[in-house]
Automatic annotation (TrEMBL):
One of its GO terms (cellular component) is cytosolic large ribosomal subunit. Keywords: Ribonucleoprotein, Ribosomal protein. The keyword Ribonucleoprotein applies. InterPro entries: Ribosomal_protein_uL29 (IPR050063), Ribosomal_uL29 (IPR001854), Ribosomal_uL29_sf (IPR036049). NCBIfam families: L29. This is Large ribosomal subunit protein uL29. GO terms for molecular function: structural constituent of ribosome. It comes from Gloeobacter kilaueensis (strain ATCC BAA-2537 / CCAP 1431/1 / ULC 316 / JS1). GO terms for biological process: translation. The keyword Endoplasmic reticulum does not apply.
Length: 70
């Protein structure tokens, strides 16, 4: 699984971004729990989830700032 592309996320609507943020946060929680209990077989997935979450939150912040400027 490659790191998500920022260009792909820009096509999402604001509602889809919020949904993706919640999904990614849940996924990251599950990965951390697996890591803590030594059940995580692919530790790189934690980094991928954090990267995707950061991209989504940046995009959400940009859109929020753009709507407040108007």
């Amino acid at each position: 699984m490659a790191l998500p592309k920022f260009e792909e996320l820009r096509d999402l609507s604001t509602e889809e971004i919020a949904e993706q943020i919640l999904t990614t946060k849940k996924e990251l929680f599950e990965l951390r729990m697996q890591k803590a209990t030594r059940q995580l077989e692919k530790p790189h997935l934690v980094r991928h989830a954090k990267h995707k979450l950061a991209q989504l939150m940046l995009l959400e912040g940009q859109r929020l700032a753009a709507t407040q400027e108007k």
